[in-house]
Design goal:
Elements (H helix, E strand, L loop, with lengths): L3 E6 L3 H11 L5 E5 L13 E3 L3 H10 L4 H8 E7 L9 E6 L1 H13 L4 E5 L2 E7 L2 E7 L4 E9 L8 E4 L2 E3 L1 E3 L2 E2 L2 H9 L4 E8 L2 E3 L9 E3 L22 E5 L2 H9 L22 H7 L7 E6 L6 E5 L7 H9 L9 E3 L2 E8 L16 E3 L9 H19 L13 H12 L23 H12 L4 H23 L1 E4 L3 E4 H6 L19 H16 L1 H18 L17 H10 L4 H5 L6 H12 L3 E4 L2 E4 L1
Parallel strand pairs: 1-2, 1-9, 2-6, 9-22
Antiparallel strand pairs: 3-5, 4-5, 7-8, 8-9, 10-11, 10-21, 12-13, 14-21, 15-19, 15-20, 16-17, 17-18, 18-19, 23-24, 25-26
Helix pairs in contact: 1-9, 2-9, 2-11, 3-4, 6-8, 12-14
């Protein structure tokens, strides 16, 4: 096989973002997969976005990634969540036509210059002198590269469970990556075991939908991508129902046949997406649990049972499904199942997502312990970007916690690691009012442009949008309006009043009148910037204060044993994580603020020298 700059193992949501990001830097990129049939597949929930996850998709798009445009092109029901709350937590979500979504992404990869397919299953990671050299396929063929991005999802030593039936698989019908898993173990990485699951799929034709509440999408869908002008296609209905006492009795009666409860499964499952077995057994006081019936496409028969993940034997699953009103005569197309898989403890990685043990090797997605398509895609984009930049001799890009939810995600992973599948929430961000969906482009598109990920067309459109935003803020400060009972005042001051509304003052703004999404985006950004000015100013001041010592670099190879006053536990944790900054060191579990202050003072005094490739304390 020909030499490549970057090879990406896997073509899920992380893999495709990694490949496209590297290729946009002008590099030759290979995507190593057994088949092109499952590109950006959705084996679990056929949806993109949600709380905090929608923020990630907006940020991926602002940086030049694929996911936002893909879901805008193939979504079948769109909702903006948390509208009744503050703008910091507004989050877009969309049901996807998962077959069309996969096809759209595959076409985008095929049309990307510099990307080629390597059809075969990756077997071993090839290295020399602590640096990656390429990958050997299970067939024996080899491909060489300067950087390797591994995005194996749930396939690394994967094992599926349905009752007492087990199979070596990353998901139903697809074989696991056993040889690659052993290769990674052989390099000494800290490996853990996680578990996830999926619910049964039902035939749409066998369901009596008249028994359920209908759930509609937004009348005017909000796109994910800043480049999408509008979403005009008809939206599908979802439907809501609830489990019954009979449902719960069936679970309790057969709980000894669930692999989760009879000892067959050792992996730790996601706390925030429990299986039906866990819901019934761990929350006995709850007499019902919500289920949402979600179509997997516009014109497909398959219905996804969101909220009914389980791995009981197939015949018991069928009985459970038919215990639900409206599903008495339903036909199960596929049973739910659980899948166990290996992951690498992400404290093995730098915040660039490069492995500390092997130079040029990057991990992204569920191999790092995360649980969602969006978290995977965000990691894939950053891993592919940094792998590509390393190939051309450019410094890596690391997004900080105050710059992006992507920064929160990666910092959480590489600093604290995972004891369970990681899921991003808005509550994980200390500065979430700064990290809104409406300003993701203002925060990140300049970074994406400087990195080479944002096209000329996108850059021109962004500059026009940024000019409008800045002009509109200035217009509100100088435009005078009459407020009943209060007299004349600036529009900005009037907007800061509790009853102030920007849509009542829009005549004084420069808006995109011919474009609903751009108009709404302009309104949201300007209104939040003015109305929450005091809060934003305090958050920005806090960011600057924390950045002081927090952004101070810890020299590579710093010898913590030579720093007086550090406990054995602190030294051990810092050696395991090897933080790059004092701020990251402070977030390492078990490391006190006092210990970080001592290290900071030691570094400021210059109490170290470089010797033989490492830093030694004086």
């Amino acid at each position: 096989m020909s030499d490549l700059d970057v090879i990406v193992v896997g073509a899920g949501h992380a893999g495709v973002e990694a490949a496209i990001a590297s290729a946009r830097l002008g590099l030759r990129v290979g995507i190593c997969v057994p088949s092109r049939d499952a590109v950006a597949h959705m084996p679990c929930n056929p949806a993109i976005g949600g709380t905090a996850k929608g923020h990630l998709v907006r940020e991926i798009d602002a940086l030049g990634g694929l996911m936002g445009r893909a879901i805008d092109a193939t979504g079948i029901q769109f909702k903006l969540l948390n509208r009744s709350r503050g703008p910091a937590v507004w989050s877009p979500r969309a049901q996807a036509d998962k077959v069309r979504y996969s096809a759209w992404v595959r076409d985008a990869v095929d049309s990307s210059p510099g990307v080629e397919w390597i059809l075969g299953k990756a077997g071993r990671i090839l290295t020399s002198s602590g640096r990656v050299e390429g990958v050997r396929l299970e067939s024996g063929q080899t491909a060489s590269c300067d950087a390797l991005v591994v995005t194996t999802g749930t396939f690394l030593n994967g094992c599926t469970h349905i009752g007492d039936q087990t199979a070596r698989a990353g998901r139903a019908g697809e074989t696991a990556s056993m040889e690659l898993g052993e290769s990674i173990r052989g390099y000494g990485f800290t490996i853990g075991r996680l578990k996830t699951g999926t619910p049964p799929r039902l035939s749409r034709a066998s369901i009596d939908f008249s028994r359920f509440d209908s759930l509609t999408g937004d009348e005017r869908p909000v796109p994910f991508s800043f480049s999408t002008r509008c979403i005009a296609r008809p939206q599908v209905l979802c439907h809501r129902l609830y489990t019954t006492a009979e449902t719960h009795a069936l679970v309790r009666q057969h709980i000894d046949r669930s692999p989760m409860y009879n000892g067959c499964i050792e992996g730790i499952g996601p706390r925030y997406c429990p299986s039906l077995e866990d819901k019934v057994m761990r929350f006995p006081s709850r007499d019902r649990h919500q289920i949402i019936l979600e179509p997997e496409g516009d014109d497909v028969d398959e219905i996804y049972m969101n909220g009914l993940s389980m791995c009981l034997p197939e015949e018991i699953q069928q009985a459970i499904v038919r215990s639900l009103p409206g599903l008495v005569d339903s036909r199960m197309l596929r049973p739910g199942y659980a899948v166990e898989y290996d992951f690498v403890q992400p404290t093995e990685l730098y915040p660039t997502l490069e492995c500390k043990r092997i130079k040029g090797l990057y991990f992204a997605g569920q191999i790092n312990g995360t649980s969602g398509y969006e978290e995977a895609a965000a990691q894939g984009l950053m891993a592919g970007l940094n792998a590509g930049r390393a190939c051309v001799g450019e410094p890596p890009i690391v997004l900080t916690r105050d710059a992006a939810y992507i920064g929160v995600l990666i910092d959480d992973l590489t600093t604290t690691g995972c004891l369970e599948p990681y899921r991003l929430f808005t509550s994980r961000a200390e500065h979430r009012l700064l990290l809104r969906i409406d300003n993701a482009d203002l925060r990140l598109t300049p970074i994406g442009r400087d990195a080479g990920l944002v096209s000329d067309e996108r850059w021109l459109a962004f500059n026009a949008r940024r000019r409008r935003f800045e002009d509109n803020v200035a217009r509100l400060e100088r435009h005078v309006v009459q407020v009943p009972g209060a007299g004349g005042m600036s529009a900005a001051r009037a907007l800061r009043r509790p009853d102030g509304r920007l849509d009542m003052m829009s005549e004084c703004l420069d808006l995109s009148e011919d474009d609903d999404f751009a108009r709404d985006l302009d309104l949201a950004s300007v209104e939040t910037e003015i109305k929450y000015e005091g809060y934003l100013r305090r958050q920005r001041a806090e960011v600057e204060r924390v950045r002081g010592d927090g952004c101070r670099s810890i020299p590579a190879g710093f010898d913590y044993d030579g720093v007086p006053g550090l406990s054995v536990e602190v030294v051990q944790r810092l050696k395991e994580v090897t933080p790059m900054t004092l701020g990251q060191a402070q977030r390492v579990p078990g490391v006190t603020r006092a210990a970080v202050a001592v290290i900071g003072a030691f570094i400021r005094r210059g109490g170290f020298v470089q010797s033989a490739g490492r830093v030694v304390a004086l």
